[in-house]
Give the backbone structure.
Amino acid sequence: MDIVIDFDGTVVTHEFPKVGRDIGADKVLKELVAAGHNLILFTMRSDVTEPYSKSPEIVTKSGNYLTDAIKWFEEREIPLYGVQKNPTQHTWTTSPKAYGQIIIDDAALGCPLVYDCQQVERPYVDWEAVRVHLQMAGCLPV
């Protein structure tokens, strides 16, 4: 199965432009790979040299933000099947949306989240609950 995964708030806490703190994703992601699934990183992060925005919410500092996310996976020896796209979908579509049978994203309606207002402002994915969902769906052994 191809599984599309967001980064900030999903794999780590929201701390962009820095890489956020560990929230337990690495254990479950390694289990998914060991079970034969493909992980596709699909994030708003990009490597930018001259960002510009009038919005105060947008970080306008140059950086290798996508590379930082990819390094997070490499440092934990979690292989990525694709980055920003499914590497096989060009054979059957020109859509820019990464294709996967499952999408794990903190912005997805129904995704189990942790609300820890004393530690971080924004909620992040509850990976223990995600593991249970994946086990119930037959994607991971019980």
